[in-house]
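Researcher: Next entry in the queue.
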Amino acid sequence: MAGTQTTTEAPAPSVRAGVLAAVIVSLVTLSIATFELSMGDLPSALVLMGILPLTALLFFACLLWSASQLLRVRKDGARFAAPFAICVAALLALVYAPLSQIYLSQNFWRYRADREKIVARVESGELLPNVDYNKQMIALPRRDAHVSAGGDIVIEDVDEGVYVLFPMSRGLKHYFTGFLRVPPNGDPKKFFEFADKPPTRLERYDKEWWFVGN
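Model: Structure for this entry, 214 residues:
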């Protein structure tokens, strides 16, 4: 009696690791693109200068690798197109989604009440300049430091009232961005930091609040 011969099929190749890698690389890339502005303050900016090109190289390497997996679709199934679809979706988000604006809007509304309380304390004289090298800067108490990069604010007291700048980033050559509260009937362009050069960014967020950059 002839023996029966059984054959076992090879397990189907898995794409799980490729999908996981594409998801991780895409999420890291999108996170850096979204929060890049908040990392613009020194010394974080120096770290960011090294991270950005490495992240870009990693993302495009992942994109190319995932594209190569499309060659396996006919043999191993459509699931091998998933890593490429994930990378393409991330690329479209990088190109077309206003990630930085979404972050700024979220930051503005989340901390608006806290910032307005600080403005009131400045106007009442409770908070006064306390930084030796800058007579228009206030180092905030630790409990309030989260509302600005570095935990500092910059003020200008004029006839109309008080301008208060909450920096969001500060870079080389006195570059900065931030939320500027202007007094009633004030003009953000008249803030003393723009005396020599008009702001390069000027976006209104509310009646007395602007996002500015020099």
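Model: Helices lie at 16-35, 44-68, 73-76, 82-96, 99-124.
Researcher: Noted, moving on.
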